[in-house]
Amino acid sequence: KKLPDDFHRFLVEFIVQTDQPFSIVEADSFLKLINYNRTTPISVPKRDTIKRKLQDMFESEKLQLIEVLKRAPGKISLVVDCWTTRNGHCFHG
Question: GO CC annotations (predicted)?
């Protein structure tokens, strides 16, 4: 059974928001959790599919942002706060 696109989107959002590796979708413990208490197991997409879906979502969001910025009146300023700690770790705020 094909999973709804919402499930894939939610799965990608979970991976991104919780900073998980794409490989989590292939971990036995994750699959057990996803399929817990289900009569019919869910076929979770593989890591390559998740990566592709994330790239597609990124491109879609990027295009939407470009359109919003094109319609913005005036100029847009971007400010980035970057620094390096004494032990050489870079931070971007």
Answer: nucleus
